[in-house]
Specification:
Blueprint (H helix, E strand, L loop, with lengths): L11 H13 L7 H14 L4 H4 E3 L1 H12 L4 E3 L2 H6 L12 H10 L3 H13 L4 E4 L3 H10 L5 E4 L7 H11 L3 E4 L6 H27 L1
Parallel strand pairs: 2-3, 3-4, 4-5
Antiparallel strand pairs: 1-5
Length: 211
Amino acid sequence: MNEQHGTTEVHPIEAESYRIMRSRIDLSAMPPLTRAVTERVIHATADFDYVTDLVCDEMALAAGVAALRREVKVIADVGMVAAGITSYPVICKIRDSLSARLARTVGITTSAAAVRVAHGEAGPGAIWIVGCAPTALTEIMSREVEPALVIGVPVGFVGAATAKDELRASGMPALTNVSEKGGSAVAVAAFNALLRIARRQAAGDAAGAGA
């Protein structure tokens, strides 16, 4: 798929990647949105462990797709996540001078401060994507941001798995994973899987209305 222009054209390399992946593992028994996200993450990482590592809630994923169709705000924790999303506007405040000043004043990480600044701009009902900083995920939960969906897959040995455990226990609509693995590529892949479905649904509705 050409993510930059939002078209449904699939690049031959991507098509071959999916063919190889599906020749090695059959995920057809999964619910459709869970399967789409899982396959996209495996496609992006070449890591089949995500079949059991990802924790997907089909209702939460459906809420995320519906939110994307409403064109809600999307917030990323770091620039690498924002840079990977080329066909949807993304708010990322990690390099904002206000985030740096707030972090120094309050004594929190810049990632946590960026969440506060972004929440002030986006308000409730946004989709939050965390691929790097566990402290950003912790701040999202503490701020009661009323998200449409939280894609929480920070990576690392310090605090990442704990933050994801807490996200699953929070009751927030979420897509996450169990282990210390994760990262920007996983976060972007999960988001782009949902965005692709949202745009496919919108195109189908438009075609049906014009019939």
